[in-house]
Specification:
four-stranded antiparallel β-sheet, alpha+beta
């Protein structure tokens, strides 16, 4: 039989506690004392419902018969892989992740199965066993087994979904350049690429993007795709604004307040002498121009005279946060703020 090193053990041989805090009894100790000690609703999935023939000793040496040899080869390879597994995973995701003894023990605890972490790993690993047979004139001359290199049972983290392309600014001007990066920084030696998926301009091998000289009708603002481990992870858009500075682009809503008239209340956005309740006008580059006189509101129904003393904030539900203030000419000239 294969020798096992550094096996993850339970709290004792009689019980263990899973990740949910549930204590499971009659685990390893019961299994050693009974030949059919694997009842449980998860047995079919994890291969733990079976008879353990401990009443007889299998041979410990050699490769066995032609039919036994492939599975003994695979068992030995899986045991070697178990011995080579790290105790725990890295603190960051990796491409082509392997497993670890801790991740297997966590999977076992979460499922609450009555077997050791080693048995659970071996069950998974052996399911990948491939049989190799070499035939000659007299029939099968060799029979063996192999575990693929890509086998990864209960792998460590390979989730890169939190990573994205980043730029010092969400908007740049005509013919300007910007250095793109990854946020947060990727772990060392991680394979990645940034691709200009659509729009105009150019992207250098060192991920320096240069914007086009014109962005007519905002049709050339670029979108970049981030690939990590040759898998598309996320997309990032950059605004290219080529319109003259100071061109009005959009109005940003402030907070809303309750106003009463003729026994009815309205939630109003934009009407006030207090700046925090007024709309603010910005240009194509996102620079503040001035407070505007724009107003928007909705009915709240009948209300008492003293129900909402001025200024009482209200929910701006249904009132747009951003109002487009661009003319058709401004859009044609490349007024393309990142909010649109």
């Amino acid at each position: 039989m294969a020798r096992v090193k550094n096996q993850v053990l339970f709290e004792d041989e009689e019980s263990y506690t899973d990740a949910g805090g549930v204590v499971h009894y009659n685990g390893v100790g019961y299994r050693q004392g009974a030949t059919e000690a694997y009842p449980g609703y998860l047995g079919a999935e994890y291969g733990t419902v079976r008879k353990s023939p401990r009443s007889r000793r299998p041979p410990h040496q050699g490769r066995g018969s032609r039919l036994q040899a492939p599975y003994r080869d695979c068992f030995a390879q899986c045991a070697e892989r178990w011995n080579a597994l790290p105790d725990s995973c890295e603190d960051y995701p990796v491409c082509n992740p392997s497993s670890s003894k801790q991740s297997i023990l966590d999977a076992k605890s979460n499922a609450g199965v009555s077997c050791s972490a080693y048995d659970l790993y071996m069950r998974c690993c052996l399911s990948n066993c491939g049989v190799i047979e070499v035939s000659g004139p007299g029939g099968v001359a060799y029979s063996g087994g192999v575990i693929p290199e890509g086998e990864s049972c209960f792998p460590c983290d390979s989730d890169f979904s939190s990573f994205s392309v980043a730029s010092p600014s969400p908007i740049i001007g005509a013919s300007e350049s910007v250095q793109l990066s990854i946020d947060p920084p990727l772990p060392p030696d991680t394979d990645f690429s940034i691709v200009l998926a659509s729009g105009g301009g150019s992207l250098s091998p060192s991920f320096i993007y240069t914007a086009p000289a014109e962005n007519t009708d905002c049709s050339l603002s670029p979108t970049f795709d981030l690939y990590i481990c040759e898998i598309l992870i996320s997309s990032f858009s950059l605004a290219v604004s080529t319109a003259p500075a100071g061109t009005p682009a959009y109005q940003l809503r402030g907070n809303c307040i309750v106003l009463r008239a003729s026994g009815y209340c309205r939630c109003v956005c934009g009407w006030s002498s207090i700046d925090e309740y007024r709309y603010r006008l910005f240009d194509c580059d996102g620079n503040f121009i001035a407070y505007s006189s724009l107003e928007d509101s909705y009915d709240m129904g009948p209300c008492e005279a003293d129900a909402y003393p001025y200024p009482t904030p209200c929910d701006c539900n249904g009132i747009l946060l951003i109002q487009d203030a661009r003319t058709l000419d401004a859009i044609h000239r490349g007024c393309c703020p990142p909010v649109f």
